[in-house]
């Protein structure tokens, strides 16, 4: 039911708004620089001396994931096709449990600094080189380029600042405290930015619901199917078959193997703090449905009522337009600060993770006798180079999807499957070896990169090559995962079994005999029981969301 409402007048970014944003930036940069002193070794610079608590771990996991590309992309996709895109966020809650309960113990007990290092210990140096290289490539095309592009949209749509000027400015500001401060500066500023981000998003949601007339009015006004999180198997973007089969594969790659995310749990004090941080992040990941996707639906409803005006091709601008039109001066600056928080935290985390991979997994492998202080310098310079490459890739992003978020997921679907397979099965199946892993990664690379290149070339419609890239990206991810898994198992069983050094402490084993009771053992057991209860509550929360929005 569409009801004509009063036209909402778009407002300009005021002096008060700029002042709020300026004060915020000063606070964040000051905190980052304060924490950035005396970082002379790689453990402190890249892993914050492994001394981070669960609250900071969880906040950093959430903030480093939710960048402006999520706020802009989720709201844009919500405005274009409804809340189904929130499935990626809801599923992430469950995948984070997998990270905390399955992967964290092996990562932390092995004392690795990066996920490629874990892959080397489990398989071979070649596997490490592959993951390091493909991860850096993924960071450039799915994180640096996409996040900077989202930041440009925010600056241009909300503040009237030129796209490239805004993009360069935020890269410069983020780079200052990231390059100087390392991971400790990143995770502590991310904790501050999580609060700002959620507060700003909540304000936008509240004002949006008031403008549309409340929740019920939004549901009535929304296009048919917009408020359903489950879509038919024929849906072009989010078929339920793809969500069930393909999306978890992207999730395992991103949340359980991606250095950008795993680096947060590697910096935890211990396994218990890391696990509890993943559970906390899981609860936080339910909020994007309400804070980021629903505002996009509200924008679509306001357009249907004649209160706003923008075309479906401009859906990625839904959130900036909503902020500019609905919020009063001052609050508009606060929400803009929230968007900047998302952009800066996402960029900061990927800057640090990129420099970690370049330094520890590539440069140090080539020059193992390099001094610690020089390694830190190499990490700082590598960040600058990768940012330049990311800026050059921005014009190609639109080739991979109609909206920013779909483009992001589509690219990840070409990268994730082989990596997810070698990590997941590598932990549970001892018999898998380096030959199987390399074969699986190679097959996945050839097929995935073939699609990546064809997406850019865009073959003629009706040809076999066009049919290949027309396969839904989530279905493609599942198919590629199955192929890579079969290759991994088949080649491993046709070649010699790996030695004990490649499996001991790195693969699943039955628990040893119960130790004699002690205070430490009792305390650990209590924490495990508590974490299980919190995990069950998180699973129930996810199920309730699925039922409510079915």
Sheet/helix structural class: mainly alpha
Number of helices: 22
Biggest beta sheet summary: none
In the CATH hierarchy, what is the superfamily of the domain at 15-397?
Sodium/glucose cotransporter
Binned strand content: under 5%
Which CATH C-level class of the domain at 15-397 is it? Mainly Alpha
H-E string: HHHHHHHHHHHHHHHHHHHHHH
Helix content: over 70%
Shape: globular
Count of DSSP strands: 0
CATH architecture tag of the domain at 15-397: Up-down Bundle
For the residues shown, what is the average pLDDT? Answer: 83
Task: Report how far the terminal alpha carbons are from each other.
Answer: 21 Å
Assembly category:
single chain
CATH fold name of the domain at 15-397? Sodium/glucose cotransporter
Folded structure, characterized:
It is a single chain. The chain has 550 residues and is mainly α. Helices cover 74% and strands 0% of the residues. The protein contains 22 helices and no strands. The chain starts with 14 loop residues before the first helix and ends with a helix. 55% of the residues are buried.
Task: Describe what is shown at a glance.
It contains 22 helices and no strands. The protein has 550 residues and is an all-alpha fold.
